[in-house]
Amino acid sequence: MAERKPGRRSPAPLSSLLSNSFRGSPLEKRFGEVEIWRIWRQVVGEQIAAKAQPSRFANGVLTVKVISAPWMQQLNFMKRDIAERLNEKLGAKLVLEIFLKAGKPPAPEKTERWVKPEKRELSEAEKERIAAAVAAVTDPELRKQFAELLEQDLAHTPGKD
């Protein structure tokens, strides 16, 4: 690993540069408000996030769309606690009130990780296609690596049954 020259700093994350650029301006507060959507699931948990999602934020009032009346009733008892946890996570008292609204909540952001498909055996036709595709490569080592790359790609792609 290369050594860093004295006096040189590592690059700063873009989010840090933006927040520093807008510090003290009205936009600084807006960046904090946007964070509500990013941290919602983490603050309220998976079960609540599946039934209720933030839909609007204005003048300290967070509007949350809730899927049903029973969930609205339950969340009504939790509003103050949710607002406190959001503000704690945000590092500022932005959420002054939570307004619950009946309706289908917007789809939450998907946070699932991509899962690599199962590896499968290649058919003879697929092996022949790979051989034909790499035949024009004159360097034997490069041809072998290219063929292995194509094999790996096809092996992790669902076959046509």
Count of the separate structural domains = 2
| Termini separation | 48 Å
At the fourth CATH level, what is the homologous superfamily of the largest domain?
Answer: DnaA, N-terminal domain
Q: What characterizes the major β-sheet?
A: 3 strands, mixed
Mean pLDDT comes to: 80
Secondary-structure arrangement, i.e. CATH architecture of the largest domain: 2-Layer Sandwich
SSE order, as H and E?
HHHEEHEHH
Rg, alpha carbons: 26 Å
What topology, given as strand order, has the largest sheet?
1-2-3
Label the overall shape: elongated
Q: What name does the CATH topology of the largest domain carry?
A: GMP Synthetase, Chain A, domain 3
| CATH class category name of the largest domain | Alpha Beta
Class based on secondary structure composition and strand pairing: mainly alpha
**Helix fraction bin:** 40-55%
Tally of individual helices: 6
User: How many strands in all?
Assistant: 3
Poorly predicted ranges: none
The portion of residues forming beta strands comes to 5-15%
